[in-house]
């Protein structure tokens, strides 16, 4: 490809480059407008200025993301399957199964996401789909993924999602049997009070479920053994897979006993915000009176209020001053670091979570007592629990730590962003790193290199 003409490039920058494929008419659709109005109510309930630069287009971005993430309500799985059925003869005059006559077909490791019907937070899915062809016909392999995606793009819980995918394939392909295994990962987003009360907070809830039809209806069927053995190659712990009757209680963290206890400590949610979330559910094509959704608006608002815009005049607690003073030479200074300080935050552009770890490096006089980890953690959480962007979060942490330590500070933030998987870009596994350097770190490449090399290999998920 040739280089982009510089003049053309500057014109694009000035006029704005269209990076999405959403039709302009979508912005004027009643559903889009209704969701935008609801999001403005939510932002005002968080004590935010809806005309602030970073929030001006948030209502539209949220509306587009939600409508894209729940487009399965407007899709029909049968239409997808029937467009891709192909004749395929099986074995002739032989004992066994193959091709279109009973040979097991599996598509593994399909990355999906869905919105949890209990709390409206997105959850990640690794989907494994299998079926046994019959009638000497097979289905295009990509269609198995597309059918799974149709049902994932609705408000869901793991077991119902597995059952709906399985049922759709059974009725659409008419195979000898269909089988689904889902590995689901739901973020357990703490509030500030729960983190203070429970330092062992676990950031994730996992579910491993399966569903079968036809020859897979019996969970002890030989074909299930073949299916699950093939999943072992992909690192799936098949011993933990649950069937429908083993998942009576909801997996969502918002309905756990600890969350319920903490919720009882929180005042009743703003009724205007609850009504706004109810209108969002209706705009997506859902019935807010469906029993699984009745409490969802209140749960979402209680969670969202973790990011209420508050001032930080009260500080972050008490930090013992370091013994270093301005006349200490660099030869008598040493580098200290605090690594893997956890954080959770909320993207102000899409109202979706991002989360990860913070690493802080600083210089202080040799022999002086390093600043306490709990104090640095409190700074991280104080800036995390608000509507944020990662670049600003990194800068704010660095500037605040610098004000206590005297200037020589480096901060690295590593984060996973939910908006990278639950919007049009859908880049699973991506991770964002940002850096802030102040004082000596800004002019000393060797110091930066030493600190960066001290950061362990991490996986924020």
Describe this structure in words.
Residues 35-187, 275-455 form the GTP cyclohydrolase I domain. InterPro entries: GTP-CH-I_C/QueF (IPR043133), GTP-CH-I_N (IPR043134), GTP_CycHdrlase_I (IPR001474), GTP_CycHdrlase_I_dom (IPR020602). Keywords: GTP-binding, Hydrolase, Metal-binding, Nucleotide-binding, Tetrahydrobiopterin biosynthesis, Zinc. With 461 residues, the chain is α+β, with helices and mostly antiparallel strands. Among the domains are: 75-243, 2-Layer Sandwich (GTP Cyclohydrolase I, domain 2), CATH 3.30.1130.10; 333-454, 2-Layer Sandwich (GTP Cyclohydrolase I, domain 2), CATH 3.30.1130. The chain is built from 14 helices and twelve strands. The strands form three sheets. The chain has a five-stranded mixed beta sheet with strand order 5-2-3-6-7. The chain has a five-stranded mixed beta sheet with strand order 10-8-9-11-12. The model is unreliable at 16-22 and 323-330 (pLDDT under 50).
Secondary-structure blueprint:
Layout: H1 6-15, H2 30-45, H3 58-69, H4 77-82, E1 85-87, E2 105-116, E3 122-132, E4 137-139, H5 141-152, E5 155-156, H6 158-173, E6 177-187, H7 192-197, E7 204-214, H8 222-232, H9 257-263, H10 271-283, H11 296-304, E8 333-347, E9 352-365, H12 373-384, E10 387-388, H13 390-405, E11 409-417, E12 432-438, H14 445-454
GO molecular function, one term: GTP binding
Domain GTP cyclohydrolase I: 35-187, 275-455
Pfam family, one: GTP_cyclohydroI
């Amino acid at each position: 490809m040739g280089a982009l003409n510089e003049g053309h490039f500057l014109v694009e920058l000035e006029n704005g480059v269209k990076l999405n494929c959403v039709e302009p008419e979508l912005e004027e659709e009643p559903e889009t407008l209704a969701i935008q109005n609801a999001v403005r109510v939510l932002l005002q309930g968080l004590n935010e200025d809806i005309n602030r630069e970073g929030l001006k287009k948030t209502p539209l971005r949220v509306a587009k993301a939600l409508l894209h993430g729940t487009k399965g309500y407007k899709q029909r799985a049968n239409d997808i399957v029937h467009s891709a059925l192909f004749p395929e003869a099986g074995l002739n005059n032989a004992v066994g199964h193959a091709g279109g006559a009973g040979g097991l077909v599996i598509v593994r490791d399909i990355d999906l996401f869905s919105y949890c019907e209990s709390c409206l937070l997105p959850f990640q899915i690794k989907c494994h789909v299998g079926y046994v062809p019959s009638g000497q016909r097979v289905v295009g392999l990509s269609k198995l993924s597309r059918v799974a995606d149709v049902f994932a793009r609705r408000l869901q819980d793991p077991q119902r999602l597995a059952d709906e995918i399985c049922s759709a394939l059974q009725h659409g392909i008419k195979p000898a049997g269909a089988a689904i295994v889902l590995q689901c990962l739901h973020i357990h987003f703490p509030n500030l009070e729960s983190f203070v009360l429970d330092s062992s907070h676990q950031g994730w809830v996992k579910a491993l479920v399966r569903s079968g039809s036809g020859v897979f209806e019996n969970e002890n069927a030989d074909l299930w053994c073949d299916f699950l053995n093939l999943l072992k190659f992909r690192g799936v712990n098949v011993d933990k897979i649950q069937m429908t009757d083993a998942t009576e209680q909801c997996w969502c963290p918002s309905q756990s006993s600890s969350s319920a206890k903490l919720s009882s400590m929180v005042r009743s949610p703003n009724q205007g915000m609850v009504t706004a979330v109810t209108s969002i559910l209706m705009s997506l094509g859902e019935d807010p009176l469906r029993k699984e959704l009745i409490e969802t608006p209140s749960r979402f608002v209680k969670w969202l209020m973790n990011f209420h815009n508050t001032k930080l005049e009260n500080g972050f607690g008490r930090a013992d001053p370091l013994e270093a003073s301005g006349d200490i030479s660099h030869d008598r200074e040493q580098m200290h670091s605090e690594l893997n300080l956890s954080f959770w935050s909320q993207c102000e552009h899409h109202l979706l979570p991002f989360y990860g770890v913070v690493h802080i490096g600083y210089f202080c006089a040799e022999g002086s007592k390093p600043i306490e980890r709990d104090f640095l953690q409190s700074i991280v959480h104080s800036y995390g629990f608000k509507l944020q962007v990662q670049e600003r979060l990194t800068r704010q942490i660095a500037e605040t730590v610098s004000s206590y330590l005297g200037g020589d500070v480096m901060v690295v933030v590593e984060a996973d962003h939910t908006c990278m998987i639950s919007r049009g870009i859908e880049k699973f596994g991506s991770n964002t790193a940002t850096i802030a350097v102040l004082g000596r770190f800004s002019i000393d490449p060797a110091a930066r290199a030493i600190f960066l090399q001290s950061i362990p290999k991490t996986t924020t998920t």
